[in-house]
Design a protein that fits this description.
The complex is a heterodimer. Chain A is α+β, with helices and mostly antiparallel strands. Chain A contains seven helices and four strands; from the N terminus they run H-H-H-H-E-H-H-E-E-E-H. In chain A, strand 3 and strand 4 form a beta hairpin. Chain B is of the alpha/beta class.
Chain lengths: 164, 615
């Protein structure tokens, strides 16, 4: 097992640490696996606190600076905690042409939420993502795992009601 | 499962063909692409299963969940085979009626059929719908025809025949010769001749070589690769294996966007099945040739679609491009000779091996042969995935296949090539599809995103949109792209806010040329294309913004007054109903009025008004 001292962190439970160790152990000797490790660890914790990034870097025998550089480069990784439900609004061309900007304005206004931010009660995070490849349904929003197509400023708040 | 011999493969093909083409068995092909999943095809499938069982039809009716059918906007879709009856927008409640009428009484349910947007007539057969009738499926030949999670279905459609031919009868030279004859060019957008690329890598010395598949489909408005991977993952694996044989590589990677979870799931299943059959892995078909494929999930960076950046990303680093040469054919992934092709390119390879390069080159224009897949979206009636022969005009694409502009509005432009491309105006719509032909009019073929825009689209705002995209995705390594695109974005934002000055346009043009000439990679070099093409064809809109401080398409909020023209207002009240801020007062038979104090400028009323009465 990875024998580095686990830093204390409020958002990471013992079970999470165990899972993180397994991820590191499995990928330790595969070159280029750092992005996979970071992704899987983010799935466990829901974001990547700096303490965790350092822990992963040590476990994978990579410079901490290099791993932080990878985290900050890719938009998938988040250094801040996310809400219980992540709203991903597609800002691809087709969705833009079909009025996603109005939808975003409505969500921001309703929940006092800014792009890239999380509501105070950690209910929603709002992310503007590049094309989701579901242009046939534009404009598109993904909440958690659910894809909502053909959304409009008028109906978007109603679609979000079920996510508590 | 033990490894297959050639005889086993032939046996599986014949057996599965026998089942899949049995005229006494009705096959209900329910679309299981991302689009149809999102509109509820899983529930519809469940309802089908239950209803078939209830009616005791299990012996004569089979349900097949296919990959993306292509006509995404009308999902969930169902095609009844062998008749080819095409049902759209199904709900689980419709299923009992559908089974009773279509299967038991053999009469199509009219209300669930496709309605032609022009003639308003219902059309029963898929082949009679203009969206499908003008297409020529090659890369998409199996879409909607097979269950992507069953390798036997793929084998029944002549799958893995090409591998047998290549491994048993062909030398690397023969493969490359066939590819060169086919004149297939990179479908990711750059259009580099595939045969030539493979030839470089084959001649490159080295024990270890790599075959890479670019499935990091980043262009906004493009979903060809996703659909191919979801509908026909095995053809990509087969294409990659053939490439591996041609350059003598033993390891391949598919670099796929992490957003494409369904595609990744189906690829994993396909790889597992191919390995079980001995069509992938060690000693393929007992020929002594080894080839293995791994999937690598991207982490959300547009620049990773650039080949050198993609390779850096697989190495676990920041995905930043590097200068070429050395080219990847000499020093690619882990500094080893590598080839990188896009999903669509690979999916064409097996057919070329079976039918020959001459067959592939038999359609197309002088320099662009074969077919091209487009993802047609935006303000067009028929939205979805289409494959047309090179040489088809853009007009045919938008009006014959796309069915013209939605909501009776007017065509303004079709955007090709995403953030590296440009917008094509009406008077150039007769341009044929081809790499050189499209480049000549200031756009690029790109990976195949074709976004149709109507007269409500502001071209200055679109230029700003693409620059915002590029600025966001610029990796920051080279100054022209990092700083130049930021400056261009700032100028465009200024113009959209109504603060533009005449010299801004000159600055935009100058910056465009500097960035084009000095940026490190393709992302930067082409970054200014959307702006240049907008300036070329829609200069009047820029002038209206800069000189008259007016947005003709009424999209730029800063230039709108949020007032209602009493002469144009038809007193219908639609704006009143759409307003979320109670800022509009309206009574029957009275002109509506916007209270500017309460108005939050959300644009809802602009979208709803059918008479352009709000300005």
């Amino acid at each position: 097992m990875t024998c580095f001292i686990k830093p204390h962190h409020d958002d990471i439970t013992q079970t999470m640490w165990q899972k993180i160790n397994i991820v590191i152990e499995t990928n330790k000797y595969t070159s280029g696996a750092i992005i996979t490790v970071l992704r899987e660890c983010q799935e466990i914790v829901n974001y990547l606190p700096v303490e965790l990034i350092d822990y992963i870097a040590d476990g994978m025998s990579l410079p901490r600076s290099e791993v932080f550089g990878v985290v900050s480069f890719y938009s998938l990784f988040s250094l801040k905690p996310k809400g219980r439900h992540t709203i991903k609004v597609c800002t691809g061309t087709a969705c833009y042409v079909k009025g996603i900007r109005e939808v975003i304005n409505r969500i921001e206004g309703e929940f006092d939420l800014k792009e890239g931010g999380t509501t105070e009660d950690r209910r929603f995070s709002l992310e503007c993502v590049r094309c989701l490849g579901a242009c046939g349904l534009a404009p598109v929003m993904v909440v958690g795992e659910d894809t909502h197509g053909d959304i409009a400023a008028e109906n978007v708040i109603k679609s979000l009601e079920d996510y508590k | 499962m033990s490894k297959l011999t050639l005889n086993d493969l032939t046996k599986i093909r014949k057996q599965t063909q026998g089942i899949n083409t049995n005229p006494n068995i009705t096959r209900l092909m329910i679309c299981g692409g991302t689009g149809c999943h999102a509109t509820g095809s899983i529930k519809v499938k469940q309802a089908l299963v239950e209803e078939i069982e209830k009616k005791g039809l299990s012996d004569t009716v089979k349900i097949v969940e296919t990959g993306c059918n292509g006509f995404c906007a009308l999902g969930p879709l169902l095609v009844v085979q062998p008749e080819g009856i095409f049902y759209v927008k199904l709900k689980s409640e419709d299923i009992p009626e559908l089974i009773q009428e279509q299967i038991i009484n053999n009469t199509p349910v009219k209300r669930l059929l496709f309605k032609d947007p022009a003639t308003k007539k219902r059309i029963a057969k898929q082949d009679d719908i203009s969206f499908f009738a003008h297409q020529m499926p090659r890369a998409l030949r199996n879409k909607g025809q097979i269950d992507p999670e069953k390798i036997d279905d793929y084998i029944a459609r002549d799958g893995y025949i090409a591998i047998v031919k290549v491994l048993k009868e062909m030398k690397p030279d023969d493969i490359i010769k066939e590819m060169t004859t086919s004149s297939l060019r990179g479908r990711g957008g750059a259009g580099f001749p595939t045969g030539m690329k493979w030839d470089f890598a084959r001649k490159s010395e080295g024990e270890t070589k790599y075959v890479l598949c670019n499935a990091d489909e980043g262009d906004p408005g493009a979903f060809m690769d996703r659909s191919i991977l979801e509908a026909d993952p095995h053809c990509v694996l087969e294409g990659m294996t053939i490439a591996a044989k041609a350059i003598n590589a033993n390891k391949g990677y598919i670099y796929c966007r992490t957003e494409y979870q369904l595609a990744i799931k189906r690829l994993k299943i396909a790889i597992k099945q191919a390995k079980e059959y001995g069509l992938l892995g060690k000693n393929i078909l007992n020929t002594g040739f080894d080839f293995d494929i791994d999937i690598y999930q991207g982490a959300g960076a547009f620049v990773c679609g650039e080949e050198t950046a993609l390779m850096r990303s697989i190495e676990g680093k920041r995905g930043m491009p590097r200068p070429r040469p050395p080219f990847p054919a000499h020093k690619g992934l882990w500094e080893k000779p590598s080839i990188l092709n896009n999903v669509e390119t690979f999916s064409n390879v097996p057919q070329i091996m079976i039918k020959g390069g001459d067959w592939y080159a038999s359609v197309g224009t002088e320099k662009s042969k074969g077919t091209k897949v487009f993802a047609l979206s935006g303000d067009v009636n028929n939205i979805g995935l289409v494959e047309v022969p090179m040489g088809t005009t853009l007009r045919s694409l938008v009006f014959d296949i796309g069915g013209g502009i939605a909501k009776k509005r007017k065509f303004k432009a079709v955007q090709l090539g995403g953030p590296s491309g440009g917008s094509v105006p009406e008077h150039l719509l007769d341009t044929p599809v081809g790499y050189e032909e499209i480049a000549k009019i200031g756009a690029i073929m790109g990976s195949g995103g074709a976004i149709v825009m109507d007269d409500k689209t502001c071209m200055v705002d679109m230029a700003r949109f693409f620059m915002d995209f590029i600025q966001d995705e610029s990796c920051g390594k080279c100054t022209p792209c990092r700083e130049g695109t930021l400056r261009m974005l700032q100028i465009l934002e200024k113009i959209c806010e109504g603060k533009g000055e005449p010299r801004d346009i000159k600055d935009l043009e100058e910056l465009s040329h500097v960035i084009h000439q000095s940026a490190l990679c393709g992302l930067g070099q082409t970054a200014a294309n959307p702006v240049l093409s907008a300036l070329k064809y829609f200069r009047n809109e820029f002038d209206a913004h800069v000189i008259d401080k007016r947005c003709p398409a009424k999209r730029c909020i800063a230039m709108l007054k949020f007032e209602i023209d009493p002469d144009l207002c038809k007193k219908c009240g639609l704006c009143f109903k759409s307003c979320p801020a109670d800022a509009i007062t309206w009574k029957k038979k009275e002109v509506a009025l916007i209270d500017k104090e309460k108005c939050i400028k959300c644009m809802s009323c602009f979208d709803k008004c059918q008479f352009d009465a709000i300005f």
